[in-house]
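Why does this matter for the project? Reviewers at the last site visit asked to see concrete outputs rather than summary tables. In response, this paragraph embeds two records directly. Each consists of the residue sequence and, immediately after it, the corresponding structure tokens. Nothing has been edited or filtered.
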Amino acid sequence: MATVWTIPIDITSRWLDNAEVQTFLASNDLDNASPDPLVRIAQFAAVTKSLEKHIGHTFSSVQGAATALFDDIEGGVPVALKLAALRLILREVYQTRHAPLPFSSRVGKELGTYVYALVDPRNRSVFYVGIGQGNRIYGYVWEALAENEHRQTLVDPELDSAEVRAATIDRIRQIYDSGHEVEHYVVAHRITESDGAADAAKHGLVGVLGLLEGQALTNVSDATGEYRVVPIDDLILQYEAEPAPNLPTPCVVLEVPATSRRGVTSEEVYELSRGPWAAGTAVRNTEDIPVIVFADNIIRAAYRANSWFSVSQPGEAVLWRFAGESDPELEAQFVNKRIASAQVGLSKWPTHGWAPHLTQARPGR
């Protein structure tokens, strides 16, 4: 177990809600603190600014954290406020995160040549962008964590300078030492020789800009849908997934892109899936109708809808939200399986995401 001091990306909200901070602002009899509330507010604001400035930084000692956060604040910082900040950012690292495992040659063939980005989860910053094939996306992480056996699976050469290499490896080690892990995103893949370096760079740049704005699954003006910013884990799942079996009849199939977002919880998936939808009478009148939810052609959840509620405003088209519960049997059959539009009788998925499957003959409402 190691102790580190890491400033998380949500430090501002946590700092504002901190009980020790509230006590500091409200009290005028703390040791080493000014009795003047305006002075205390100014000191609080200065520390807040310093914490925000250092978002994503990790320190291996309390002295290092204190020096970075407080030494440049004019007039100094009261002990009570220092302790509140340092206790808030203290983190116990019980186990280093495991290095990613190599993906299969099947996934590598599907990816082809790709542009990828490495993201620091501590401040959501992109700290490296590269191009490669096979498991190249994991190359620097494996090197930083001394996973030499995994590195032997790499087939394409490394082209970076010694300075870039050293800086990237150092950043990765800082991330893992802080108890986090590097996030790997593919920002363009299936790049062919006819695309050219300029096209690959363009799509890679657009994808990285999407990541910088926090849009981890942003379409980037590609008619084929192949240039998207996607976590590598999602692409592995998509290209390794078994095809979904025949869908139940009747059922409703819903495309909800946000359900593939990294870190999304089962509760959030349910709320995202509920609607509003243009549910017709046939669907709403079907008792406990199965609801299959997918994103990126991978099924993410399966429910049974037992009731529907109108959520439309007067004068607008009637839309509906469903209430229901997850179905373990359906989940075992379908979740993490690959679904195709042909399974509901469509040539492609509708842009609105609603695809009822009421008969074997054709989709309906």
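We now turn to the second protein, recorded in exactly the same manner.
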Amino acid sequence: MKKQVLTLLFLGLTLIVKSQNSTEQVQKSSVEKSIFGIQTGFAGLWVYNELKLSNQIALRTEIGFDAYDNDEFYPDAGFLLTTFITAEPRWYYNLNKRQSKSKRIDNNSGNFFSLKTSFRSDNLLLDFGDANNARIVDNLAIIPTWGIRRNIGNHFNYETGLGLGYIHYFAKSSGFVKDKGEAAINLHLRIGYQF
């Protein structure tokens, strides 16, 4: 009888033993479904949205105002404030590692690799002042970038990134002899607010 009671007790205990991996730990870390915010830096102001494509990949779309040195094609224009549009797939590659170390991953806080693709157009140029003839040559930049994004509190964040890529100037469409392409650098440091 003792053996039967001990056997039943042992079997009963094995049914209530829990695994070390709780349901929270089993869930994979993931980027947010959609985040919307505004950021500012040394030379501009940007409004962005990041949309989840997979657990580690988000598509960042952005529209903003950027200081632009226009000395290559129109040297008299000087620095201008240009409007630009960006589409940037981002791979947040260290979310699982950050979560396992109990670090924040909310609001897509992590390290990322991205392919920043930005377009500036003369049609989107904002003209402030008396230089009514200010113009730019339409251009498209594609820059692979490495960066980090971290949260400050619940709504604020900062972000920095560094990349080297290519920019193509569509100079022929502006009346120049030929188009031009050259190396481009993406170096940014931004602070922002997420809604």
